[in-house]
Write a structure and sequence with these properties.
CATH topology: Jelly Rolls
Oligomer: single chain
Mean pLDDT: 89
Number of strands: 12
Largest sheet: 8 strands, antiparallel
Structural class: mainly beta
Helix content: 10-25%
Distance between the termini: 82 Å
Radius of gyration: 21 Å
Length: 154
């Protein structure tokens, strides 16, 4: 009787683990990229989704490669954004602040609702992984294009 009760208790405690999901691997060859829309990018930006936001993980990421002179429009992120620069040299700027250089290995934190842009310099390409969380169903709010004067090649 004790053994039956013990076995039943073990089954009850381990059953949820047996129902848990398994790990999933997405191969890089299976991810399809695309050229960024002219509505929100100036120049050539190639976007390769890295992972989507899947409940309960309300975060997504994309690898973005900017050719020289390419940049995003001004934008904000309701829950912030983390940029991990994986190759090259680019620029990032918060509205009203000085443009900053970002280089391979740098990590840039853009706080929630802080208007900014990022992209390549005028002479170098840059690639970064952009990670952003969803808040209220949104992860980015796009603004107007960065003008050539704002972009400026210092």
């Amino acid at each position: 009787m004790k053994q039956t009760l013990g076995f039943s208790l073990i089954l009850t405690l381990t059953a949820p683990a047996a129902l848990a999901q398994s790990m999933e691997i997405t191969r890089s060859a299976d991810r399809e990229g695309f050229i960024g829309s002219e509505e929100v990018f100036t120049g050539t930006a190639y976007i390769e989704p890295v992972f989507p936001a899947n409940d309960p993980f309300a975060v997504n990421a994309g690898q973005v490669s900017f050719l020289p002179g390419a940049r995003s429009a001004w934008h904000t992120h309701p829950a912030g954004q983390m940029l991990i620069v994986t190759s090259g040299t680019g620029w990032v700027q918060e509205r009203g602040e000085q443009k900053e250089i970002m280089q391979t290995g740098d990590v840039v934190w853009c706080p929630p609702d802080v208007e900014h842009w990022h992209g390549a310099t005028d002479t170098t390409a840059v690639t970064h992984v952009a990670v952003q969380q969803f808040k209220g169903g949104e992860n980015v709010i796009w603004g107007e294009h960065v003008t050539d004067a704002e972009y400026g090649a210092d």
